[in-house]
Amino acid sequence: MNIFIIGTGYVGLVTGVCFADAGFSVTCHDIDESRIDRLKKGDVPFYEPGLSEMILNSLAAKNLSFSSSLDQVNNHDVIFVCVGTPDSGDGTSDLTALNIVFRSLQDKLTKDALIFIKSTVPMGTNQKVVKNYPKLFQNTKFNIELASNPEFLKEGDAINDFKKPDRIIVGTNSKKVKDISYILYKPFNWQRNRLVFMSPDSAELTKYAANSMLAMRITFMNELSRLCDASQANIHEIRNGIGSDKRVGRDFLYSGIGYGGSCFPKDVASLKKIFEQDNVQSDLISSIDKANEQQINYFFEKITKHFDDKSSSKNLLIWGLSFKPNTDDIRESVSIKLVKKLSPIFKKLYLYDPIAASNAEPELKTFRNLEFIDSQYDMVEDSNALILCTEWKEFWHPDLNILRNLKDRIIFDGRNLYDPLDLAKFNISHVGIGT
Ligand code: NAD
What we know:
Layout: E1 2-6, H1 10-21, E2 25-29, H2 33-40, H3 51-61, E3 64-67, E4 78-81, H4 96-108, E5 113-117, H5 125-132, H6 134-137, E6 144-148, H7 158-163, E7 168-171, H8 175-185, E8 195-198, H9 200-229, H10 235-243, H11 264-277, H12 283-307, E9 315-319, H13 334-342, E10 348-352, H14 357-363, E11 370-372, E12 385-388, H15 400-403, E13 410-413, H16 420-424, E14 429-431
Parallel strand pairs: 1-2, 1-4, 2-3, 4-5, 5-6, 7-8, 9-10, 9-12, 10-11, 12-13, 13-14
This protein binds nicotinamide-adenine-dinucleotide.
Residues 6-12, 29-32, 35, 82-85, 97, 100-101, 119-120, 151, 153-155, 262-263 line the site of nicotinamide-adenine-dinucleotide.
């Protein structure tokens, strides 16, 4: 079975490479020619642990190739559409790239095929695609099936998530699609059956529901952390107390400065829009992004209130710019938002991230008082405080002998990584969230 991947971003590239690694013959296509040129040499245009090595292995084994043209699509049996579906600006998902793909496929694809939409798309999109592209789906010469196959991988651990998924959702009513899904996903479905079949609408909604549920858990913990600050309670104790309840579970219960990234904010916004468009009231979904915004303001105010009217003479050292560890993705990164809010108020900001600095630089180029530094301890002595934004592993056990040289000996811990008692031994104050 030959597989054709359309879109070589985080989802498309990981999907293609994992299928190639499992022995399928895979062609990955993208309209971005420079991206394809780099990939042909095994050069991954973003940071994802382990991906580069797997690409080089599959290129050497000759079961992975890259192309900036759709011409070879007819040599393939299964097509995965993995293009971006960003927020249009009003919360709706922008399906421009998806529609361009189907318009192009309508001109090129002239044989039996199965197309999976892996991109995150609003409920009803699969049905609309079938209706809007009759040359593909209503022709009598060949049979093209369409199914929804939302992706649940997370950046930073994407290969592991793809190879060992909790579940593989396929939205289809077709027996043929189900049979092919079993063959395709067999390498990742061996230990137990992870395939879950449902209607295309349910599959599409499941993706939004999963991300919104996780965003809601984080947000609720963040609200509780503010309540902890206002009382003698401690958010670590609350997390342990509720996480030990099997019905609640331990994941996604960490308070911090809020969620970001390329998925949660846009998927929450899109689900909110879907509720509105379907005239179904949901007070809950409307509150999630609002409460998330409040959390970054809350942390920002902790910092600015501490320095009060002296901020303009103070320098800050900021650790972490990516929206989470193990990725260079800065889309909707809360750290970047915080830097933009702090920059006009403070004298100078020193920024450090192990991987994401080169992505952050263009995003922050209009802010004049920023300096990107090469090591996490550069400029400690010239900084009044450390602001921890992203919990990269190298920040977990910092050298406190060095950090005691911070001018004001204070750490604003946006991820609640540090124990205030450990810092106190070095005369460093700790400001966490709910701790
Ligand atoms: P991305 O922005 O990293 O990559 C999209 C790729 O599609 C780009 O390389 C772009 O050049 C390419 N593209 C755009 N139009 C094209 C066209 N007409 N033909 C061929 N290629 C085209 O996106 P991503 O992060 O991989 O996300 C893809 C989809 O998967 C989105 O719907 C997203 O919501 C969803 N998703 C993302 C993640 C994640 O962690 N990034 C996880 C699960 C689901």
